[in-house]
User: Fold this.
Amino acid sequence: MKRFPVRGGSTGGRSGRNRSIRVERFFVHVFTTVILLATTSIGAFAGGPNPPIPIDRTDPHGVRRPPAEASLDPGFMQPARQTAKASPTAPAWEFLGVWGGDVDIVAASPTDAGLVLAGVGPGNLMLGGLYRSTDGGATWQRAGYQSMGQVPVDAIVFAPDGTAYVGTAWDLWKSTDGGETWVQHALPSNEYWVRSVVIDPSAPSTVWVGVGPQVLVSTDGGQSWIDKTPPQASRTCYSIALDPTDPDRVFAAYSDVYASSSRLYFSDDGGSSWVDRSAGLPDNPIFDIAHDGDRVLVVGGIAFGNQPFGVFASSDAGLTWTPLHDSSWPVLFLSDVEIDPLNPNAILLATDDGVYRSDDGGASWDFGVGGTGAMTIRSVRLSPDGSGSVLAGEETRGVLLDLDGDAGFEASSTGINELDVNSTAANPLDSQELAIAFQGVNRGGIYTSRDGGATWLRESCPPTRYIRAVFSPSGVLHAISSGPTTVAPEGVYRRDPDGTWVHLGPDQGSLYDTDLISLRFSANDAQLVFAGGRDSGSAGYEAAIWRSSDAGASWTRAYESAELYRMVYDIEIVEDGTDTEMLASWVALDTLGGGALRSIDGGSTWDEPVQGLPSGAVPVALSPSPRGPEVFFLADYGLPGGLLITEDGGATWTLTGFAATRVWDVACHPTRADRVYVATDHKPFVLVSDDGGDHFSAFDDGLDSAGSPMEINLSRDTPPRLLLSTWDGSFFRILGNPPPRRPGGRITP
Assistant:
């Protein structure tokens, strides 16, 4: 799938994620196709007080959201890693960058000034996890992995004695030793996803949780539970709040993000009876509630389906409500509210447009405080030590920290390697220049490094989801955006010398009508470019190859499949100096099959040779071999999967000796004719062959903290570096002498 960097970058891979509940990445796109057919949408889920983040209905990728780049970003340099660069003889993989990820909840201990916990949630589909800091958020380590695994964390709360409770997609967890060890508390419910956890301030062993539609309470620290669910409740309980002056006065918020409906219930007898206090509130989702003893505040709203809410206050237990927002607000999509317990006039809001703050009880507001404007903030918390420090969870940058509540937020995510990296590319003219393409649910971007990954700069491209970063042979950086189109058009973007990004297309309409995944530049003709993917939305769902003879200024459709729900995953050129022969791989998104395409007229027309492809093959990735210009390898992600080779430019294919393993990506060493690397979606994630692909041995030392690979690529360093993009960041390995191959060392599932 990855060509030599001198030939213009990298293609292939796939958007999506999975977690401890295994969801194969390839089937994410298939599942999305089925969802589109049904005109419904998958939600990726956050919670705690934080909302789920449904996917933009107009965009078929399962991944994140908007508007212009934050003021914190221009010139914002982020350190890549704590360890120094590897020596040329480094035996293992190392983390390359960039720290961060989708932090949905962050909370500090009231008894230990340095202890902070952060929950990574929803990412895409089912990945996530818990992180722990013992130095106030300066550095982080994964916590609870041996017990919880990689599961979304949506709620974190500390009891006054420092006991920590964490709500996850798989039950409630408790720690009494500062988060070093965790004990699972199964709940008496048919549901598992805990969205809200609240501690009674007057009785630290009394714990309230919202799990599915249920409200449960324990008076013994989670050992036993009483069902306090409102009888009229349906939907999902996203937030619970207690009156700090009278814990029998309880509010519970229920929402359905797909049905534009919500209900707020109130109890004055500890949940024995409930009344509906939704009158006067919008019927859009409610995601958080806060109570200061005099007033209750509720916030909500979500960009998905354009469901605004804002912030409302009540001083009479919800009998009447007063909006604290007005029509001048930049957004009315809010996920979290925090009231300063030492000063109830100080209110913080987490919004899709940064942190909003009021110091006069909500009479006036400052928007995007601390440089957070246009960031998607999921959680905001004041430090319990009374210092005024503010911790925020952001959708891609991870944890943000404002040490005095006024100086401005800085990224504080070193050690959180949860950024969903789709692509890592090296400039063929300067191997120290790297680019990372990443995405969340409805948001993403491009990071670049000029020093081999020691530091990273967030590019000023539109903050959409990016599935590919590609340097042209002349060293010009390009990227493929997959929307949302409400932020910026999808398609190919180019970075110009002045740092601005130009949209090149191809553009078939104002909605998400072109779904691209691969980009290939000619090494001989700087004007010749190919883009592969499919039509989408009103344009249909056929596989497509686009051709440009003017460096992307204009495009013509060179290929369109006759069948629906097909997608071109990768494109290669036979580099014999003529630009005559090309080949491509395509995947069927409805039948879990695929095939290969070939052109012998410079990519103007394409036919479909299938000689040698096994039945059920899912060809996702191509890679040229230094054996000769017409030799390519093909990664088969089907069942049983394997690795194929062609020696005639894609006219015929044969299986190598490596079979019965689903291969996600393939790359060839640029000078070692028989050395081939493959990436799979199960451990060992990376394998190496020194006999042309017949036998493979594990090549994944140091990848224990990595998620499933998205792309494998090579830089032109001396010696070269192997670059691996994963769901948990980008990794590199310097290639020295080949490891010894075990006799008969074929890896099978």
